[in-house]
C-alpha cells in the first residue's frame, strides 16, 4: 500500500485524491453487494413463499393456511435481508432488532383481540373441525359455512342471511357439525290411541318408512313404545339415512306415516277433555248448586 501511494504521489496524484477514490470504490462495492443481497433475498423470499402456498394444492389442508404461512416465510426472509444490508453499511443492527422487537410487542398488545382471532383462524384451518359447505351450529348460530378466513368465519343462515362470527368465538365454543359424517340417524315420535292395536301400528309405521329408498336397513332400525302419554301411546322410531337426505327424509316420512295410519284405521289421537257437571237442589231454597270436574282423556 505504501509503495502504491508513493508511486501515485510521484505521478502527481495527491493523497486526498487517492483516498477519495478508495473511499468511493469502497462505497460502490458495499452498495453493489447490498443491492445483490437485496435482489437475492427478495427472490428467495418470493420463491419460498410460493413454494409454501403451493403446498395447499397438494395437502389435505385448506389453502388459506398455506397462504398465511407463505406470507410469514416471505416477510421473515425480507426482514433478515434488510438487517444484513444495514450491517454491510456498518450500522449497529442490534439496536434495529431491539427496536423492531419493541414495535412488534407494542403492535401485539394493541391488536391482541385481532391476533387472537388470527390464532384461532390458524387452528380452525389447520385442524379443520369445520370446512366450507358444512351445515353447522356455532356459538348459537345455525347455517352453512361459506368462508373461513384468518379473522372470521362466515355462515349463511337457512334464510340465506350472512352471519359473521370472530374466529376466537368459533374455536372457543361448542361446534355442532351436521355435515361431518356421511350417514345420520333420523328420529320420529308417533302417537297412537290407547284403543289401537300396537302390533298393527308398529308394522304400519316401520313398513312405511323402510319402503322409502332413502332408508338404510343397516344399522338395524329402532322402533319401540317409549311413553304412555295422557292421550296417546308413543312410538320412538330411529332410522339411518344418507346425511344429505336427512331433513327431507324426516319431513316426508312424517306425512307418509300419518297417511298410512289413517288408511289402516289406526287412531291418531289428539288431546281431549271430558267435563262432568253434577247438579244438586238445595232443600231450603231455590238455589241450585253446581259442581264441576274435568278429566283428561
List its traits.
single chain; 297 residues; alpha+beta; Helix Hairpins; SH3 type barrels; five-stranded antiparallel β-sheet; four-stranded antiparallel β-sheet; disordered N terminus; cell membrane
Q: Can you walk me through this structure?
A:
The protein is of the alpha+beta class and 297 residues long. The chain folds into three domains: 2-110, Orthogonal Bundle (Helix Hairpins); 129-177, SH3 type barrels, CATH 2.30.30; 183-263, Alpha-Beta Plaits. The chain has helices at 2-10, 15-58, 63-88, 93-110, 112-127, 167-171, 198-210, 246-263, and strands spanning 135-138, 141-148, 152-156, 162-166, 175-177, 183-192, 215-216, 222-228, 233-242, 273-281, 288-296. The strands form three sheets. Strands 4-3-2-1-5 form a five-stranded antiparallel β-sheet. Strands 6, 7, 8 and 9 form a four-stranded antiparallel β-sheet that branches. Helix 2 runs antiparallel to helix 3 and helix 7 (198-210) crosses helix 8 (246-263). The longest helix has 44 residues, at 15-58. The chain is elongated, with a radius of gyration of 40 Å. It is found in: Cell inner membrane; Cell membrane. Keywords: Cell inner membrane, Cell membrane, Ion channel, Ion transport, Membrane, Transmembrane, Transmembrane helix, Transport. Homoheptamer. The chain crosses the membrane at residues 20-44, 65-86, 98-127.
Amino acid at each position: 500500500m505504501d509503495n502504491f501511494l508513493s508511486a501515485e504521489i510521484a505521478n502527481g496524484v495527491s493523497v486526498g485524491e487517492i483516498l477519495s477514490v478508495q473511499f468511493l470504490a469502497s462505497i460502490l462495492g458495499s452498495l453493489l453487494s447490498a443491492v445483490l443481497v437485496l435482489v437475492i433475498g427478495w427472490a428467495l423470499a418470493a420463491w419460498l413463499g410460493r413454494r409454501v402456498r403451493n403446498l395447499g394444492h397438494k395437502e389435505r389442508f385448506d389453502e388459506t393456511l398455506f397462504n398465511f404461512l407463505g406470507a410469514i416465510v416471505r416477510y421473515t426472509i425480507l426482514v433478515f435481508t434488510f438487517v444484513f444490508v444495514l450491517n454491510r453499511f456498518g450500522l449497529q443492527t442490534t439496536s434495529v432488532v431491539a427496536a423492531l422487537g419493541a414495535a412488534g410487542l407494542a403492535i401485539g398488545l394493541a391488536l391482541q383481540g385481532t391476533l387472537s382471532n388470527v390464532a384461532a383462524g390458524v387452528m380452525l384451518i389447520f385442524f379443520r373441525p369445520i370446512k366450507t359447505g358444512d351445515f353447522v351450529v356455532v356459538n348459537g348460530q345455525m347455517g352453512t359455512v361459506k368462508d373461513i378466513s384468518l379473522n372470521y368465519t362466515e355462515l349463511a343462515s337457512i334464510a340465506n342471511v350472512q352471519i359473521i362470527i370472530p374466529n376466537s368465538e368459533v374455536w372457543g365454543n361448542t361446534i355442532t357439525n351436521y355435515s361431518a359424517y356421511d350417514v345420520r340417524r333420523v328420529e320420529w315420535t308417533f302417537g297412537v290411541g290407547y284403543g289401537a292395536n300396537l302390533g298393527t301400528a308398529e308394522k304400519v309405521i316401520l313398513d312405511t318408512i323402510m319402503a322409502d329408498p332413502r332408508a338404510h336397513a343397516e344399522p338395524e332400525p329402532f322402533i319401540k313404545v317409549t311413553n304412555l302419554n295422557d292421550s296417546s301411546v308413543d312410538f320412538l322410531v330411529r332410522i339411518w339415512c344418507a346425511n344429505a337426505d336427512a331433513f327431507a327424509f324426516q319431513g316426508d316420512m312424517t306425512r307418509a306415516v300419518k297417511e298410512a295410519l289413517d288408511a289402516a284405521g289406526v287412531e291418531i289421537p289428539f288431546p281431549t277433555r271430558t267435563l262432568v257437571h253434577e247438579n244438586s237442589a238445595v232443600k231450603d231454597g231455590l238455589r241450585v248448586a253446581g259442581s264441576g270436574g274435568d278429566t283428561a282423556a
